Amino acid sequence: NLFPRNALPPPAPEAPTPEQQAELKRQCAESLSALLPDFLARAAGLSREGLVKEVETELDVWSDAYLNKHLAYQILDLIVVRVLPELGEKGVKELMEARGIDV
Question: Is pLDDT of 6 > 70?
């Protein structure tokens, strides 16, 4: 059923404020850096706090809308080529012409 109990879904939660976004990013960086062994931080000459800051810096890549869009298109392209491998060898126009469809 598209609408359970014949009711519309609740409104979407509000977007986090910039302060909440910074805190979420910090928590994410702390969680990710906790997965890394201490010797990596020492080898890089960083304290645990320095490692958290480095991970936060690396997370900035995910805040770029253009890069995220590019990544999404690349993933979609990989999926399409896995499902339809002939698209990896020829373009859509060539495939349609090979099948006798006027383009």
Answer: yes
One-letter amino acid at 40 equals L
d(CA 96, CA 103): 7
Closest CA to 62 of 36, 19, 24, 31: 24
Residue 80's contacts (CB-CB under 8 Å, 6 or more residues apart) are: 87
Note the pLDDT of residue 56: 92
> Is this model's pTM higher than 0.70 or not?
no
Residues 6+ apart with CB under 8 A from 64: none
CA–CA dist 58, 48 (Å, integer):
15
Q: State the Cα–Cα distance between residues 88 and 100, nearest whole angstrom.
A: 20
* Closest-CA residue to 49 (of 68, 65, 33, 28): 33
Pair 33, 25: CB distance under 8 Å: no
The token pair at 42 is: 């020492």
